[in-house]
Description:
Elements: H1 20-28, H2 33-40, E1 45-46, H3 47-53, H4 59-71, E2 75-79, E3 87-91, H5 93-96, H6 99-110, H7 123-133, E4 144-150, E5 153-160, E6 163-168, E7 176-180, H8 182-189, H9 195-200, E8 204-208, H10 210-216
Amino acid sequence: xxxxxxxxxxxxxxxxxxxxxxxxxxxxxxxxxxxxxxxxxxxxxxxxxxxxxxxxxxxxxxxxxxxxxxxxxxxxxxxxxxxxxxxxxxxxxxxxxxxxxxxxxxxxxxxxxxxxxxxxxxxxxxxxxxxxxxxxxxxxxxxxxxxxxxxxxxxxxxxxxxxxxxxxxxxxxxxxxxxxxxxxxxxxxxxxxxxxxxxxxxxxxxxxxxxxxxxxxxxxxxxxxxxx
Length: 228
């Protein structure tokens, strides 16, 4: 008779430090926790969608992180009503308050010489990057609704009067639509790759007002790199 070895995940270690930053790390310092929160910043998601958008995470680890964030009051579970009943995870109002942390952390880390923008990028991460890197001065006088068809999801970015809104939404009434994967859009916006070159490679398609789309891509400058 063989005995099955049963292991339990170790309880998260605490810093036992009264500093607010230390307690923040107690709450979200486990690997993948912040990225789970990032994926939920644009609204609820099913477990399967979270796993698909977080390249490299296992189902077991994702379950642990969701349980930990739920216990901390950052994430909650709820069931969607018919006709599409499903369990989804979403941030609590307090959880959504963390977006400025992601923005500051993202801008700070983008200055690192070792930051590699060619690595995988989720659709939620791309939309949050637009809200983070938007340069209101460059966009002065520009008004448009930009659509994004990224896999099975659609998003709308609205720019008007030097302000930006980005989130999920239908793309039918937009001025132009980028169609492709998030890394291809990032290559056009952050990597300086011409849209025409990405279209020629089959990585990206653009529908609608091309001149507006090309100008849109210039509104998100990355911060300068620090000296090594």
